[in-house]
Amino acid sequence: PEIMIPLTSVGNELRFQRDFIRETAQKVFEEKGDKINYQIGTMIEVPRAAVVADKLAKCADFFSFGTNDLTQMTFGFSRDDVGKFLPVYLEKGILINDPFQSIDQDGVGQLVKMGVERGRQTKDNLTTGVCGEHGGDPASVEFFHRIGLNYVSCSPFRVPIARLVAGQAVARESLHIQREVLEGVDAC
Questions:
Q1: What is the pLDDT of residue 35?
Q2: Is 37:3 a contact under the CB 8 Å cutoff?
Q3: CATH number of the domain that 176 lies in?
Q4: What is the pTM of this model?
Q5: Which residues of the chain are under the pLDDT cut of 50?
Q6: How many folded domains does the chain comprise?
Q7: Residue 99 has what pLDDT?
Q8: Which domain holds residue 134?
């Protein structure tokens, strides 16, 4: 089982929560005479968390990027109000895509990439993934694969497309590697 702590952005806060969970779990294990293995991770939902991911990784077994909240906090857009101006932004070409539907690769995506890289500087086997609507968007899933996320999660009706796109991304990567190997055979 996994326990995911939301909205952390300070290492000491995550450490405090992790220690509280461990102490509470230990008490329950002693009361019940049984023990289970579990992991404790955190949601990376605020820009500061991505920036200090190297510090957060010291206290986390995994990261799950909450890209809906991360998008909202990065743009300063309220999801409740975005419908009032986003159609105009899209129509006028101010934004190319709805950033709540397809990950903003230049901004929010770079925060995710930074969080993955910094987290893995501290813990090279850190499991990273994304949860939210972006996990079912084809362009977003492909981007997440390119930057090395281990998984995506999304609403149930988007699972088939997410699986298809993830499989295609892996297949494309395998073909690219095979081509490089074959081209290297006769290289001088």
A1: 95
A2: no
A3: 3.20.20.60
A4: 0.86
A5: none
A6: 1
A7: 96
A8: 2-185
